[in-house]
Every structure is written in C-alpha cells, then in structure tokens.
C-alpha cells in the first residue's frame, strides 16, 4: 500500500466493481441507472454505488440506500418513470458513502432518513478507513438519519412488512438486513457481495466472525424462492448466498490456520490460500491478495 498507484487504487472504492472505480472519489460522477423488477412493486436499481432496493405502492415510496450523491437526480427520475411519487422513506443499510450519499438531497426533498444508531453516530464525525487509507469527513447535518433504532424496526407499507434487522459486527457495526416478509425479498446491504470477495470494514466495527454469523442468519431466513439483493453484484438466490458462505468459511479458515502456524502476512499471501476461489470471487474491487491481507489484518486485530 506504500506506493502511489496502490494508494490511489486503495482510495477508489468504497465499493465498486468497475475499473473506473480506481479513479473515483467520495462523489464520483453519475452513471446511468438500470432498473430490474424483483417482485410486485419491488425493484433493484443498479447505478454508481451500492444496489438500491425500491418499494412502490399504495402507501409510500420506500428506498433502501441511495448511492453516491451525484446519482440523486437519476434515482428520482427512475422512480418517476415507474409512476411512483417522491421518496418518503430512505433506510440506510450502513454508513458508507456509496450507500448514503443521496441522503442529504433526498432529505431536502422530503424523505425521512432511517438507520441503525451506529450509522448516525459514524456519519456525525470523521471516519478513517485504514484499509483504503481513506479519510471520510463527517456528513452534513441534513444527511444524518433522523430516526434510528438499536435492534430492529418494521415498516408497514405497500401491503408488506419490511423488517430491518441489525446484525452486529459484520461488514460494519451498523448493518441491517432488510426483509420483505410477504414478498420474500431480502436486501443484504454489504454483508453480501455477489461474485466478489467482500470488504470487511474492521475500522468501522466489522469482523470476520460477525460477517459469517450474519450470512448464516440470512440463510436461516431465506428459502429457495427468496430473491436476494446484494449490496454489490447481481440479484441472487439462496444458491449464490450458500456459495458465498462456503467461500467465506473456507478461505478465512485457511488464513486463520496459516497464521496460527506462525506464518507472517507475506508468507500467508505466498501460500495462496484463496487460489481455488479466485476465479469466481476475485475482482477489480478486491482481488485474492487484497482479500487475504484484509482478512489476515482482521484476524490479527482479533476481529
Ligand atoms: Zn459498505
């Protein structure tokens, strides 16, 4: 991480897959939005940042996450194109700016921002992501969630119960899973990267064991019909989530074992403990080597 190119790469992404991400900053330029129908009245919006979940219907327009700030007009336009009124509630799955960047403008436009207690706490003060050598300034007051909760909260909207469940110390310390109980849809936030090694933000309270426990909790919640919106990557089902769980358990187990044998991080990297998984899970955002370094650092920190 010492030289300039790797530092720049590291700055890139709170969390994008594309190579363009390497040049991105906290507010990268807007991209087109692609809308995919998930279930009756429920959509996923792919753009620049974490995947957005959208519920429209008789009661209110409800949004899960809102990508980077420059995306807001395009998100609003995509919602209008579906014939829905402006956003009334935004639920943030966690504090990262590729999931909360739209809070300020959507709040100004009348949306109520809701999140776990720790999301507001972290957004209120500067954050440092050591793994990316990235300092994140405090969010403006208008971007902060105005309703927060500690354990869970339910939204009774559009003919469904949309339940937000806090999962401790997973990707961060403020993650929620969002479960549409009737529609059988789950938004996983960044506890699920579909098709790429995950980022585990230990500097924000995430942990390896917590992430695996969270994935097990999700597997207990879903069945073969459940449609799962990952924080990043394409829409998934139970099979993709099981493959992700298996990859996490196997790779982190190998890394732990090598560290327990007394190998240092360089030797662990040289042992290529993710070799069997890199073809499916290594990506532009986090490749096999970065993933091994990240997990080894987390384990070394007791996380
Ligand atoms: Zn994240």
List the helices and strands and how they pair.
Layout: H1 4-11, E1 34-39, E2 42-46, E3 52-55, E4 61-64, H2 72-81, E5 87-91, H3 97-100, H4 103-108, E6 112-116, H5 117-123, E7 127-129, E8 134-136, E9 147-149, E10 152-157, E11 160-166, E12 176-180, E13 185-187, H6 208-221, E14 227-229, H7 238-260, H8 265-270, H9 278-281, H10 288-300
Helix pairs in contact: 6-7, 7-10
Bound molecules: zinc ion (ZN).
Provide a quick synopsis of the model.
This protein is α/β, with parallel strands linked by helices and 303 residues long.
Give an overview of the whole structure.
The protein is of the alpha/beta class and 303 residues long. The chain has helices at residues 4-11, 72-81, 97-100, 103-108, 117-123, 208-221, 238-260, 265-270, 278-281, 288-300; strands at 34-39, 42-46, 52-55, 61-64, 87-91, 112-116, 127-129, 134-136, 147-149, 152-157, 160-166, 176-180, 185-187, 227-229. The strands form 3 sheets. The protein has a 7-stranded mixed β-sheet with strand order 1-2-3-4-5-6-9. Strands 10-11-12-13-14 form a 5-stranded mixed β-sheet, with no helix packed on it. α7 (238-260) crosses α10. It is globular, with a radius of gyration of 18 Å. The structure holds zinc ion. Zinc ion is lined by residues 15, 94, 96, 171, 190.
